[in-house]
Specification:
By secondary structure, the protein is an alpha/beta fold. Helices cover 34% and strands 29% of the residues.
């Protein structure tokens, strides 16, 4: 393992950065936080002071001009991901950008092209994929313990609907539950099945109180070999966060699939009515994500999940949005 520490700059003071990613970087083996930027210097200084970050900038451009910053984390609203990813690439910075990477395929393609041209790494921040339980889960499937996969069901919902000014509830900012949390079950099914969907059918609740973004959606994602993902996602519902993989001879349940809770890193394998809990060590999946990113960069190795994966995922997400708006099945080509 390379013993260097990657120096990170944080573009913005979003809650996900302050509460999850910055602490994860600080507690990681291969990384450290060097700088943070906000649109206002006062906010950057206040955040830097609270989190013991050495440098604070009053604009994103200033941070990107810092020669000591090697990589940036972008937790900005969805509609700003493309702009600042491209600017960061042009500044020679490696990039970890929040999901969804962009609002559509074209934007993702432009981001990947800019990063390839600048010879920098670009990763989409799906932290759950770095949790070791998914390696164990896929090994269980490959062993044949639950037989052939017949289907996957996954949910990711929460209730934040009273926060009317939240960027999730602004259409022009890329708001909506499919962009925000629906992308997780879709990503997970693609990862587990190691295949790409053929068609989607989605129904959604578009709220007039929240700029007509989809506050709840449910869908059917058709994969090859007659396997499907059924899912629902929402931002105006009780918190849920799980995956169930149904096989011909058994099933696997992940009770806390995307956001892990204390004591809920495990998964459950059931066969012929008998269940066993597969214990997994308590880990910080955000820390594993940044350590993996840094080691890929320093060792000049491919990322575990290449940026092209984001292109495939957004293709499915936008097809789901199109299906919900048109109330029809959409084939993915």
């Amino acid at each position: 393992m390379d013993t260097r520490k990657m120096k990170w700059g944080i573009l913005g003071c979003a809650n996900i950065a302050i509460n999850s990613v910055i602490p994860a970087i600080k507690n990681s083996i291969s990384n450290e936080v060097t700088a943070i930027a906000s649109r206002g210097k006062d906010k950057a200084l206040k955040t830097a002071s609270a989190l013991n970050i050495p440098r604070a900038y009053g604009s994103y451009e200033e941070l990107l001009a810092d020669p000591d910053v090697e990589a940036v984390y972008i937790p900005l609203p969805n509609h700003l991901h493309k702009q600042w990813t491209i600017k960061a690439a042009q500044a020679g910075k490696h990039i970890l950008c929040e999901k969804p990477l962009a609002l559509n395929e074209k934007e993702v393609e432009e981001m990947i092209e800019a990063c390839d041209k600048a010879n920098v790494y670009l990763a989409e921040a799906f932290m759950y994929r770095y949790h070791p339980r998914y390696i164990q889960l896929k090994e269980t499937i490959r062993s044949g313990e639950i037989g052939e996969i017949r289907g996957i069901h996954s949910v990711f919902t929460f209730n934040n609907a009273e926060d009317m000014e939240n960027v999730r509830y602004k259409q022009h900012m890329g708001g909506g539950s499919l962009y925000d949390v629906g992308c997780y079950p879709i990503s997970a099914a693609r990862m587990i099945l190691e295949n790409e969907p053929e068609a989607v059918t989605t129904h959604a609740f578009f709220s007039s109180q929240h700029d007509q973004v989809d506050m709840m959606a449910s869908g059917l994602i058709e994969f090859p070999n007659q396997i499907s993902l059924t899912f629902d996602c929402g931002m105006w519902a009780e918190f849920r966060n799980s995956i169930e993989i149904v096989g011909s001879d058994g099933k696997i349940e992940v009770p806390s699939a995307f956001i892990t809770m204390d004591g809920k890193n495990h998964f459950i394998v059931t066969k012929q009515g008998i269940s066993k809990v597969i214990e997994v060590p308590e880990v910080n999946q955000y820390t594993l994500q940044v350590d993996s990113f840094a080691q890929s960069v320093y060792q000049k190795q491919p990322l575990p999940f290449p940026s092209k994966d984001a292109h495939y995922n957004i293709k499915v997400v936008t097809a789901c949005i199109e299906s919900a708006k048109a109330r029809k099945r959409i084939e993915i080509v």
